[in-house]
Every structure is written in structure tokens, then in C-alpha cells.
Amino acid sequence: MEFSPNNNIVKLCLQGMAMEEKGKPEEASKLFLQAWKEGTNDFEKFLAAHYIARHQKNISGQLKWLETALQFASKINDDTVQSAYPSLYLNIARCYEDLNDPDNAKKNHDLANSFREKPSDKGPFYHGTKADLQVGDLLTAGGSSNYKRDLKMNHIYFTALVNGAGLAAALAKGDGHERVYIVEPTGSFENDPNVTDKKFPGNPTRSYRSEAPLKIVGEVADWERQTPEDIQKWKDKLANNKGEIIN
Q1: Could you give phi then psi for residue 239, rounded to 5 degrees?
Q2: Residue 3 belongs to a domain
Q3: Is the pTM of this model over 0.85?
Q4: How far is the C-alpha of 216 from the C-alpha of 227, rounded, in Å?
Q5: pLDDT of 228-245, one tens digit each?
Q6: Which CATH number does the domain housing residue 216 bear?
Q7: 26: burial class by Cβ within 10 Å (0-12, 13-18, 19+)?
Q8: Counting Cβ atoms within 10 Å, is residue 207 exposed (0-12), middle (13-18) or buried (19+)?
């Protein structure tokens, strides 16, 4: 299952988050409930329930929706949602603590810790760029950030979603052609902390980073390309982003 910002339920959740940022919780709650009603698959139901939970007026209601989110997440056997388990179990544990149920609180804390392992994603992995490279070349850390001038990156970034790599290629600096390379990590890697548990639960974009080089093993010619208008919207959004990059 591939996470997509073009998905209608994802769009509703983004609109809801925008309402939260504007200090309009009632409008946000309505959008999340609409997402729940219009969700047609387990991932969409999981996502909507996650956001509905934080708009509940009491702990019991919050716990109900968190466990509903967990119920749908457990039906999805892929890395799109598995990265959300630590925070999901942790929030459930906190609800049980507030309800004075230490046994269930400990159980869920233990489950949260059990999922805090290295990413289980086996790929294949992709890296988007405008650089003209060859099979066998190594991509290394130390390059300039595409999103913040004068910042040298301590990690090399990649994703398991080919369309995500395609978007990265479109946003990359340079005048070359957009290229999406198939890569293999040569060392350990971790969830990208700049996206994990930020707007969306877990790491649904399956974005990772490593201090070790990535080896290019192939190239992809076909992916879902953004329109020039959409690319400009992304560039404008990044230009207005005042958040710090976790480097």
C-alpha cells in the first residue's frame, strides 16, 4: 500500500490539521469524521481514527478511537503502518495510566518498546536526484540540503516509495533530468526523524536515512510525475517552512 498526498482521505486529514493549526478544533474534528465516513480501506480508516482520537473530550473516548485505529492498522501487513505502532501503543498506554489501569498500561508500554527496533523495511529502495550517475556509483552523505541553503547533510536519504523518490527528484537542485535510482544501503539505516510521527502517524512515506553510502544498482524510468503546478506548490510550501531540519 503506497501513501499518497493525492488520496482523498489524506487530503481531508491535511485539511483537518490545517484547521488545528488555525485554532479551529471543531472544524478539524468535522473533517476527521468526514474522513472516517468516506474511508474505504483499512489504511484510510486507521488514519482517520488516529486523528479522531485526539479530539475526544474524555480519556475513554480517546482510548476507544486509538484502539479502533490499532484494529485497522493490525489488518495491514506492511511497513506503511508498522512504523506507527510504537507511538500508537504508547498513546494507548498513557490512556490506561490516566484510567488507573496499571496492568494494561504496562502491557502497552512493553508493546511500544518491542516495536522500537530498526526499520523492518526490506525495500526495494529509491533515491531521487538530478545527478547523472551510473550503476555501481555510491551516494554519500555530506551534500547540500535541497530544502535549506548552506546546510550540509550528515545522512543520505532514500525511500521505499518510487513516487516519493520521483517527487524528490523533481524538487532536487540542478538543471539535469529527473532521475530515480534503485539503491542498496551499505550500512544501517533509520526512520527519517523529519517525517516520522510528525504530521502523520509513523513513517507512512517509508522515508529513511543512513550515514553509510547507498550503492546504485539500477534506475527506474516510470513513476507518477507531478504537474509543474504541483511541483511549484511543493516548492512554495518548502520555502515557507520555518521548521528545523533534524540533521
Answers
A1: -65, -30
A2: no
A3: no
A4: 27
A5: 888 787 777 766 665 566
A6: 3.20.170.40
A7: exposed
A8: buried
